[in-house]
Design brief:
Layout lengths: L1 E7 L2 E7 L3 E7 L7 E6 L2 E8 L2 E8 L6 E5 L2 E7 L1
Antiparallel strand pairs: 1-2, 2-3, 3-8, 4-5, 5-6, 7-8
Pfam family, one: DUF7127
InterPro entries: DUF7127
Protein name: Hsp20/alpha crystallin family protein
């Protein structure tokens, strides 16, 4: 397993690479209902509703996403290598 970590604003983003898959996890720190995620190719588009205003952020993924989930303010995106 290989781990890559970066911090931007209040979010902590980690990328794990295994033999057959990768996982990107971000601790967003807001209610699950406030997070909307869409993936297009190798790009994740995250929209967070904050104080009634949407805040959009994009980041590159190591490949195309197979699954996206949000639980307790943690965004997890997984894909195959």
């Amino acid at each position: 397993m290989r781990l890559t970590q970066s911090v931007g604003g209040d979010a902590l983003l980690r990328r794990y690479e295994y033999e057959d898959r990768w996982v990107v996890a971000a601790d967003i720190g807001v209610d699950d209902e406030a997070i909307s995620v869409d993936t297009v190719g190798e790009t994740a588009i995250v929209v967070i509703e904050s104080h009634g205003e949407p805040v959009e952020s994009e980041f590159e993924l190591p490949g195309s996403a197979d699954t996206v989930s949000v639980s307790n303010g943690v965004l997890t995106i997984e894909g195959a290598l």
